[in-house]
Specification:
This is Alkanesulfonate monooxygenase. The protein has a single domain, classed as Luciferase-like domain (TIM Barrel, Alpha-Beta Barrel). Helices cover 43% and strands 18% of the residues. Strand 2 and strand 3 form a beta hairpin.
Length: 391
């Protein structure tokens, strides 16, 4: 039995999240063909499907091109039951006291289903549009002060603080959150400043889907920093998935997804990423493929085609369900306990991943065994007994 297999035997099932595409969705990258605009009714379809299918939560992205994650999550919380919402907490874009009141309100409205994704920002051009002009490391310094104030307020303390970036006198909030002392903080960042902030402050450190060896190095670096501060940090993986019944079908789907993308589109996108972003993580994503179509397989079943056009998480695990599950278990053996996945288009792929991959991961997909012995998809008595016994 290998080291990975032993760790898999002893590990709890992965926490599995899905994604709400608040900037729009579609069947092809870089094309208007079969595009789905950002629409709350569509977001609701995805959220309710994820809730019903057994996903534990959803990530809502942030940025100028996205619908606001807080308002969208507030709406979706009223039409779902168990689903958790990972929304962006933006130091520098909003004040810590105002953010603390928003946090407490949304946590109460959702009955304790709020999670916070700390986003310090990696695009100075977009940040300038929001009135933020700090250099990279200064933004993380500001974020540290922001979170110090935010955590104190949500813990019920009266806060007096005078730092380099914030001054608060007799700060307080009157309505506490459901989750104490505050909803959990998630965070991703590859720079040393980002890893220091993670080690000092957050509950879960997220990494994009880099090759296993690179992810292992990042996890070890953050774990050591946290240990030096007397803290423990959990770890999560943000990645796309292309799962099909066969390997050939999965790879064909990957190629189809970027079949409308021209070389000119790729060159423009990569130039924009390099010129506008100061994110170390974005640079690492770009270096995996170098903007070249013939360099997209960057690890076993790890494909970087999405990063040709999309900033941020740019890799996908591609393959049949058993193979993709094996690859996810390799990340899990490093300490990953949470996967935040996505796939295009997100409504259909939520079903595909649930139906094909969840059984391989030992996850329960709600409603899959509500079999009817008559109708278009009949099941024999023996099939029904087997389904019940394995549910």
């Amino acid at each position: 039995m290998t080291h990975i297999e032993k760790n898999r035997q002893n590990a709890d099932p992965l926490n599995f999240f899905w994604f709400i595409p608040t900037s729009g969705d579609g069947s092809y990258l870089g094309s208007l063909e079969r595009q789905r605009p950002a629409n709350f009714d569509y977001f609701k379809e995805i959220a309710q499907a994820a809730d019903r299918l057994g996903y534990q939560g959803v990530l809502l992205p942030t940025g100028q091109g996205c619908e606001d994650s807080w308002i969208t999550a507030a709406g979706l919380a009223t039409v779902t039951e168990k689903l958790k919402f990972l929304v962006a907490l933006r130091p520098g874009v909003t004040s810590p006291a105002y953010a603390a009141r928003q946090t407490a309100a949304l946590d109460r409205l959702s009955k304790g289903r709020l999670l916070l994704n700390v986003v310090v920002g990696g695009n100075p051009v977009e940040l300038a549009g929001d009135g933020v002009f700090l250099a990279h490391d200064k933004r993380y310094e500001q974020a540290g002060e922001f979170l110090h104030i935010w955590r104190g307020l949500l813990a019920g303390h009266e806060v007096d603080f005078h730092g380099k970036h914030y001054r608060v006198e007799k700060g307080r909030i009157n309505f506490p959150p459901v989750q104490q002392p505050h909803p959990p903080l998630y965070f991703g960042g590859s720079s040393e400043a980002a890893q220091d902030l993670a080690a000092e402050t957050v509950e879960l450190y997220l990494t994009w889907g880099e090759p296993v060896e690179q992810v292992a190095e990042k996890i070890e670096a953050v774990r050591k920093r946290a240990n030096d501060r007397g803290r423990k940090v959990r770890f999560g993986l943000r990645i796309h998935l292309i799962v099909r019944e066969t390997e050939d079908a999965a790879w064909a789907e990957a190629e189809r997804l970027i079949s409308k993308v021209s070389d000119e589109d790729i060159a423009k996108a990569q130039k924009r990423f390099l010129e506008q972003h100061d994110s170390v993580g974005q640079r690492r994503m770009a270096e995996l493929h170098g903007g070249k179509r013939d360099r997209l397989i960057v690890g076993p079943n790890l494909w970087a085609g999405i990063g040709l056009l999309r900033p941020g998480a740019g890799t996908a695990l591609v393959g049949d369900a058993s193979t993709v599950a094996k690859r996810l278990h390799e990340y899990q053996s490093l300490g990953i306990d949470t996967v935040i996945a996505s796939g295009y288009p997100h409504l259909e792929e939520a079903y595909t991943v649930s139906e094909l991959l969840f059984p391989e991961l030992g996850l329960s997909a709600s409603g899959q065994h509500d079999l009817d012995p008559v109708g278009e998809f009949p099941a024999s008595v023996e099939q029904r007994k087997l389904a019940v016994s394995t549910s």
